[in-house]
Amino acid sequence: MTIKQNGAEIYYQLFGAGDPLLLLHGFMGAGQDWAPLTADWAAHFQLIVPDLRGHGRSSNPSPGFRHDEAAGDVLALLDELGVSACKAVGVSGGGNVLLHVATRQPDRVKAMVLVSATTYFPTQAREIMRAYSIDMLPEPEREALRRRHPGGPAQIDALFAQARAFADSYDDLNFDRGNLARITARTLIVQGDRDPFYPLQISVDMAAAIPHSSLWVVRGGGHGPIGGERWPKFVATALAFLRA
């Protein structure tokens, strides 16, 4: 299914029934990344799983990617579905989008899990982004990109160009304590202490600024520290938090 929003076609899928739960993938990911938990979580929630603009089967008429613009897509999708409020999980770029949603319309998000999200791009992230290319990825990750994005090399090349442009973006992600204090959702922040993009202090400060928040530091975890052997614990912990 798709909706048209601000010139883009946003693809989404729905699973299950009950309390709505929005799942937002990371930058260069797609909604299909949530497939490993869809069957289990659909027994507890109605899952709303979009492809962010320019990702997967969603289009992006803009040359760049802005998290605040993607947040507008998400809010339009919730309006289309008649969802006045939901719970949510966002990973990396999806978490950044979720921060925009939760600060722009606080009443729309009742509880959320933010994994490897950030309030701004620090210098160390900008240095990585400026040089980011597909050549930096091992072949299994390149193959995963090809599976996610039916638009082929052109779509993937556009995403890498947008990621490099983040290095010079300053007005999209610039949340301060005043912005974060607007959030009313119960919030679980998940952060690896070895994240090469975002130092742990960003998440510590975020947890201090967001009311009703807690911080889970994944020891030895990098960016998006919930995969592999850590996945079962994340799924169980996030589900318990969201159902509370």
Helix/sheet category: alpha/beta
CATH superfamily: Alpha/Beta hydrolase fold, catalytic domain
**CATH architecture level-2 label:** 3-Layer(aba) Sandwich
- H/E order of the elements? EEEHEHEHEHHHHEHEH
Counting DSSP E segments of at least 2 residues, the number of strands comes to 8
* Overall spatial form: globular
The first-to-last residue Cα distance is 30 Å
Instruction: Give the CATH topology.
Output: Rossmann fold
Radius of gyration (CA) equals 17 Å
Could you give the order of strands across the largest sheet? 1-2-4-3-5-6-7-8
Share of helix among residues? 25-40%
Beta-strand content bin: 15-25%
Regions with pLDDT < 50 over 5+ consecutive residues?
A: none
Number of domains: 1
Number of helices: 9
**Main β sheet profile:** 8 strands, mixed
What's the CATH C level?
Alpha Beta
Average the pLDDT over all residues and give the rounded result. 96
Task: Describe this structure as you would to a colleague.
- The protein is an alpha/beta fold and 244 residues long.
- The protein has one domain: Rossmann fold.
- It is 38% helix and 21% strand.
- The longest helix is centred in the first third of the chain and has 15 residues.
- The mean pLDDT is 96.
How would you concisely characterize the structure shown here?
This protein has 244 residues and is α/β, with parallel strands linked by helices. It has helices spanning 35-41, 67-81, 93-104, 123-130, 139-148, 152-165, 177-180, 200-209, 231-243; strands at 2-5, 8-16, 19-24, 45-50, 86-91, 109-115, 186-192, 213-218. The chain has an eight-stranded mixed beta sheet with strand order 1-2-4-3-5-6-7-8, with helices on both faces.
